[in-house]
Design goal:
- The protein is mainly α.
- The chain has a domain of about 130 residues.
- Helix content is about 75%, strand content about 0%.
- It is built from 14 helices and no strands.
- The N terminus is likely disordered.
C-alpha cells in the first residue's frame, strides 16, 4: 500500500497463535449485524418488494437503523477500540457508546415487530443520542492525548449525529433532518481520511481549511431547519466545496493508478466523492428535497454512494483492528463495489425518468450488494484465520 495511506489504527496483536476476539466486541458486532439486516428488511418494504419481516412500522425506521444502528454502532465501536489501544488508563467505558447504539436498534426493532407502543421513538432515540454524546466524550479523551485537525472534524460529525438523533426523538420527520444524519457520516469519514492519509493533506494549510469548511457545514444545518429555501442550496454549496477540497488532496488520485488493494480502495474513495458531489448539486440546483425521487437520490447518494463506498474501502483497515483477524484483499471485492455503484446508478436514472420498476430494481441490487459485502467480509476473515492457524 502507498505509504501515505498507512492507517493510524491499533495493530493486530502479535500474540502466539490466534488472538481471541473480546466477547464484548463480538456482541457489539452482533448488534450491528442486527441493525443492518433489519435496515435492509425495511429497505425492501420501502421499495414495495417482499421482505422476510412484513412490518410497516419497521419500514419507517429504515433510515435510523442504517445510519445509527449499523453505521453508528460500527463507528463508535471502532473508536472505542482505538481508544483502548492507547496508553490511557481503563477505557472500557468507551464501549458504552456502541452498546447504547445497539440498545437503540434492539428497542426499535422490538417496538416495530413484537411490542408496538405509542411514541415509539423515545427509547431508541434517547439511546442513539446518548451514543453520539458518548462518542463526543471519546473524542474529547483522545484530544487530551493528542489534538489534531482530523479529530476536530470527527467531533463535529458526532455533534451533528447527536443533534440529528435528538431531533428524531423529538418527532421531526426524517426528510427534514437527513442533512444532520448525513453530515454525521460525511464529517466522520472526512476526518478519517485526514487521519489515515495525513501526509497528503499537510500542504498549504489544507487541514485548517477543511476544519473551517466543516464548521460551515454544521452552521448550514441550522439554516435548513429555519429557512429551508435558503438553507438547502447553501448546504449543497458548502458540502460540494468540502468534498472537492478533500478529493483533490486525497492520495487516492495517485493510488488509482496502482494495483491490488490500493487501487481498489482508491476506486471506492473516488466514486464516493463523486456521489457526494451529485447530492450537493441536487441541493444547489433544486433547493429542499423532502420527498419524491430528488429526495431519494440525495439520501442514497450520500448514504450508499458516499458512506458505504467509504466503508467498503476502509474495511481491510478497520475490520482487522476490531476483529483481530486479517481481512486480505481479494478480487471478489470488486464485484461488491460494482454492484453497489450499479444499483445506485440504476436507481438514480430510474428516478429521473419516473420508472418505478427500474427504481425498485436498483434498490434491490444495492440490498444484494450490501449483503454480498457482509458475506464476503466474513468469508475472507474466516478463511484467512484458518490459513493462519495451519501455519
Amino acid at each position: 500500500m502507498d505509504q501515505q495511506t498507512t492507517p493510524a489504527r491499533p495493530a493486530i496483536p502479535a500474540d502466539a497463535g490466534r488472538p481471541r476476539v473480546p466477547v464484548q466486541r463480538l456482541l457489539l458486532l452482533l448488534l450491528a449485524a442486527t441493525a443492518v439486516l433489519s435496515g435492509l428488511d425495511a429497505a425492501l418494504l420501502r421499495l414495495g418488494l417482499g421482505a422476510p419481516v412484513e412490518a410497516v412500522s419497521l419500514a419507517a425506521g429504515h433510515g435510523v437503523l442504517m445510519v445509527y444502528g449499523f453505521l453508528g454502532t460500527a463507528i463508535t465501536l471502532e473508536r472505542a477500540v482505538a481508544l483502548q489501544s492507547g496508553p490511557s488508563r481503563s477505557t472500557v467505558w468507551a464501549y458504552a457508546a456502541p452498546l447504547a447504539s445497539g440498545v437503540g436498534t434492539i428497542t426499535l426493532v422490538l417496538q416495530s415487530t413484537a411490542l408496538p407502543v405509542p411514541d415509539g421513538r423515545m427509547l431508541p432515540g434517547l439511546a442513539w443520542t446518548a451514543s453520539m454524546l458518548l462518542l463526543l466524550v471519546v473524542y474529547l479523551r483522545v484530544w487530551h492525548r493528542q489534538p489534531s485537525h482530523s479529530l476536530l472534524v470527527q467531533a463535529l460529525g458526532a455533534f451533528a449525529g447527536a443533534g440529528g438523533a435528538a431531533l428524531w426523538t423529538r418527532g421531526f420527520e426524517a426528510a427534514a433532518i437527513i442533512p444532520w444524519w448525513t453530515t454525521f457520516l460525511v464529517l466522520t469519514i472526512v476526518g478519517e481520511r485526514l487521519e489515515l492519509a495525513r501526509i497528503a493533506f499537510l500542504a498549504r494549510g489544507t487541514e485548517q481549511r477543511i476544519v473551517a469548511e466543516s464548521c460551515a457545514l454544521i452552521a448550514t444545518l441550522v439554516v435548513t431547519l429555519v429557512a429551508p429555501d435558503a438553507g438547502y442550496p447553501l448546504l449543497g454549496l458548502v458540502l460540494g466545496v468540502l468534498i472537492v477540497d478533500v478529493a483533490v488532496h486525497d492520495v487516492a488520485r495517485r493510488t488509482i493508478r496502482t494495483t491490488g488493494l490500493p487501487r481498489f480502495m482508491a476506486a471506492c474513495l473516488l466514486t464516493g466523492y463523486a456521489w457526494a458531489v451529485v447530492a450537493s448539486l441536487v441541493w444547489i440546483v433544486g433547493g429542499p428535497a423532502l420527498s419524491g425521487y430528488r429526495y431519494d437520490v440525495v439520501v442514497h447518494a450520500l448514504t450508499i454512494g458516499f458512506a458505504l463506498s467509504m466503508v467498503v474501502a476502509h474495511a481491510p483497515v478497520i475490520v482487522p483492528a476490531i476483529a483481530r483477524r486479517p481481512l486480505p484483499y481479494h478480487p471478489v471485492m470488486w464485484a461488491v463495489w460494482l454492484l453497489l455503484q450499479a444499483g445506485l446508478l440504476i436507481r438514480a436514472i430510474a428516478g429521473a425518468r419516473g420508472n418505478d420498476g427500474a427504481w425498485q430494481l436498483g434498490g434491490a441490487v444495492d440490498v444484494v450488494a450490501l449483503l454480498a459485502f457482509l458475506v464476503t467480509t466474513v468469508t475472507l476473515v474466516i478463511t484467512a484465520g484458518r490459513r493462519s492457524a495451519r501455519r
